[in-house]
Amino acid sequence: MPTPTLEQVLKERVAGLIGEDLEAVEAEIHRELYSPVPLIQEMGGYIARAGGKRLRPILLLLAARLAGYHGPRGVRLGCVVELLHTATLIHDDVVDQAPLRRGRPSANARWGDDASLLIGDHLYSKSFAMLVRDNDRAVMETLARSTVSMTEAEVFQLELKRSGFTSEADYLRIITQKTASFMSACCRIGGLLGGLPSRQVEALTRYGLDTGVAFQISDDSLDFVADPDRLGKAIGADLRAQVERLHSLPRLAERILAELKGGLAASDLATLHHASHTLKSCSAKVGASGLASRCEELEAMARTGSVPEAATLVEAISQEHLLVQAALISRLAQPKSVPAQAEFEKPH
How far is CA 246 from the centre of its chain? Predict the structure, then answer.
């Protein structure tokens, strides 16, 4: 008899603890997705049949069981968090133009962006209607905070995508506010259902946050190595986006340098300050700390009005940019290598 995998063991243990409740959550999801509007009914059925890990209801139900709660609200709120999660996935797929979700064509690939956005909004509305029926202020506040955090992170991620730069700190902020904050809310709700003391509720909340960060890092790593059929979504999207960002760096830096030189020629302090600040941020995010330091000097000169002294510094920045550009081009030519920060530094 073959040794069971860790995944199989965990599934069996979860089923033993909350299997009946999970089945009830599934039935509740199907009931809540019913609508007299044919398109909602069609898309709702398609989404429900797609399944999924149901990790968020699992966390909520396990936390509730740990807190000593046995009752119908766990099932109802498990349905709420899964519908909320599904709404975020539908909206994410529209933003990312993802072709697959859970091994099948995504809703936007099948019905278009307009219908998908509206269905996502409908699921959000359904979730909050269920919360109102549940009528627990603490639970409402928990999910309200989490959804605000998720939407803020989504907009922040879009800003970074448009700028072409994402640092490690940016990445951790995004996954903490998106995935981790929601998993944290699920664990917190379980503790609230059981009426735990605040210290224990906070401990469950923190556990959910740490679990969410670990889960998302693991999930993102699969974008590089997973089998798309087993993973259930297209792989390589994040990697392709990163390569596109790297290719855009030299062009972006050249544009900012032209802006710097134009500001210097016109003695335009506002342009000098803005361009030096932007180039400093870009340089820091690719590890070019020497160039970033010079840009910081220029930024300070622009603030104090030292235009004559700035001319020499702009020329030095222009020369150092060529070295950084060469390092970036080399990095693109050898995608398997991970450059040390020293590669971007000017030799002494």
Answer: 20
pTM: 0.68
Question: Tokens 């933003």 appear where?
Answer: 95
Digit-coded pLDDT (tens) for 230-247: 555 555 555 554 444 444
What gap in Å lies between CA 121 and CA 129, rounded to an integer?
A: 12
Tokens of 259: 């802006």
Which residue segment(s) compose the domain that 263 sits in?
238-344
Tokens of 92: 């994410």
Q: How far is CA 262 from CA 266, 279, 281, 301, 304, in A?
A: 6, 15, 20, 16, 18
Give the angle subtended at the CA of 290 by the CAs of 287 and 292, to the nearest 5°. Answer: 70
Nearest-angstrom CA–CA distance, 299 and 254: 18
Question: Quick one: 35 and 168 in the same domain?
Answer: yes
Q: For residue 341, which amino acid is it?
A: Q
The amino acid sitting at 230 is R
Residue where a domain terminates, one of 235, 268, 289: 235
Secondary structure element (H or E) that encloses residue 101, with its range: strand 100-101
Question: Is residue 100 classed as helix, strand or coil in its secondary structure?
Answer: strand
